[in-house]
Amino acid sequence: MIKKILVSFCLLLSFLSFAQEGSYSPYSFYGIGDQRFKGTIDTRAMGGVSIFPDSIHLNIQNPASFSSLKMTTFSVGATGSWAKLHTETQEEKAKRVTLDYLAVGLPLKKAGIAFGLMPYSSVGYKIRNNEVIGEGDTIRHSFNGSGGINRVFLGAGYEVTKNFRVGADVNFNFGKVETSSLAQRTDVQFASREINQSDLSGFSVDLGVMYEGKVNKKLHAFGAISFTPSTNLTTTNYRNIATVQLLQLGGVLVVDQDTIFYNQKRTLKLPTRLSLGAGIGEPRKWQAGAEITFQGSKDQKNRFNDINNGRFENAIKYSIGGYYIPNYNSFSNYWSRIVLRAGARYENTGLILNNKSIYDAAGTLGFGFPITGSLSNINVALEYGKRGTKAYGLVAENYFNLGIGFSFNDKWFVKRRYD
Fold first, then answer.
1. Contacts (Cβ under 8 Å, ≥6 apart) of 266
2. Where are the beta strands (DSSP E) in 186-219?
3. DSSP 136
4. ∠ CA(385), CA(46), CA(113), 5° rounding?
5. How many Å apart are CA 236 and CA 300, to the nearest integer?
6. How deeply is 283 buried, as exposed, middle or buried, from its count of CB atoms within 10 A (0-12, 13-18, 19+)?
7. Could you tell me the pTM of the whole model?
8. Cβ pair 351, 14 in contact under 8 A
9. Residue 45 in 3-state DSSP?
10. CA 373 from chain center: how many Å?
11. Cα dihedral 72/77/358/124 (nearest 10)
12. Where does the UniProt annotation place the signal sequence (predicted)?
């Protein structure tokens, strides 16, 4: 088990090099950026449904599930993304490889604890466009953004009765976001550059409840609630505006500059979030369920007050999904122990641009491959979806995500029977 953790830690170090390029979307400019963590690989393969307790998988979306662990579990996941971005006149391609999460879960009789880290949100885009302002006159615009918010969490779950579990976790959120814009008129020697930087930090809490009860001899019913109260992030903002000269080798020579503000303090609100889900199934054979998530994004703000075309509304997400295992305890046929997962989701992201709500929809498919000779496994999730629209002067994103997760399981703290 220790060797497996060391190998995964090395994987983490390699993935961290991509942390500042976690998004390709121009929509990540607004608010705190794109929300990166959308569940572990196994739950994402089911459309994001996170209502099922699991003895060998960490369910980070609901801390009540930590008490269902039967073995020490070490989980790590990463995603490769490929996308086409469309406007009414242009088309571009983008790709990213990102770390999704790194977590450890420990069973403690009727309880369980878990801790880990994840990139929570990301800002990442590079946009170039030309604005025609008159006969023969053009302004060349360049927009860049990078950074995001990371999250460290510590949580615990407890089995109150055979049917009910409760849990809570505490998160520390921290990170830095930097955006810049450059504009040059073709008939003017110098260009204008603006750099905005925000340092963000703050705590948040997640609460969870899970239910599992028998319908008959085979079927079980499942229910889950998770709740995240609204909390504030403290931001320290910096803005610099400069007149620059563009060099032929791609560099920038600063001619004159002015710092508009430095160390300006503001607060950004992380919205209230409530998820309700229910399902039915035969454990270790098949399970299916649905989940709805409400997010009070209406009060969410941008990092700076002078963004006029972007605002927020309350968000909502619908998820359906499940899994099927032909024969989980087969010793002679490996393929019959592979877990088949599928699902779909549809959401209003809560972002409004040019008075148009931004929607995101995707279908998912996944597989869980057991590692022979252990209870560990490799999970794969395939996701194809679309976000936004190319109407209203906006951008439509068609994307394909490939997620790979490792769940290593072993028994720790076992008392020796013989010396």
1. 234, 235, 237, 303
2. 191-214
3. T
4. 125
5. 17
6. middle
7. 0.87
8. no
9. coil
10. 32
11. 130
12. 1-19
Alpha-carbon distance of 137 to 395, in angstroms, equals 25
Give the single-character DSSP code of 24.
-
In whole angstroms, give the CA distance from residue 360 to residue 316: 11
Residue among 318, 323, 223 nearest 279 (CA):
223
The H or E element spanning position 11 is helix 2-16
Domain boundaries, the chain: 2-410
Cα separation, 335 vs 330, in Å, equals 9
Give pLDDT tens digits along the chain (419 positions). Answer: 444 444 444 445 444 444 446 788 888 888 888 888 889 999 999 999 999 988 889 999 999 999 999 999 999 999 999 999 988 888 889 888 888 999 999 999 899 999 999 998 898 888 777 777 767 678 888 888 888 899 999 999 999 999 999 999 999 999 999 988 888 888 788 888 889 898 999 999 999 999 999 999 899 999 999 999 999 999 898 888 998 888 776 677 788 878 887 778 888 888 899 999 999 999 989 999 999 999 988 877 776 655 667 888 999 999 999 999 999 888 788 999 999 999 999 999 999 998 899 999 999 999 999 998 888 999 999 999 999 998 888 999 999 999 999 999 887 655 555 45
Sign of CA dihedral 30, 32, 33, 37: negative
Q: Which residues of 372-394 are buried (b: 16+ CB within 10 A; e: fewer)?
A: eeebbbebbbbbebbbbbbeeeb
Gyration radius (Cα) of the chain, Å: 24
Find out whether 292 and 280 touch, Cβ atoms under 8 Å: no
* Euclidean distance between CA atoms 327 and 66, whole angstroms: 25
**What is the Cα 80 distance to its own chain's centre?**
13
CATH class of the domain defined by 2-410: mainly beta
Strand runs labelled E in 247-306: 252-270, 273-282, 286-295
Quick one: which of 222, 135, 120, 134 has its CA closest to 171? 120
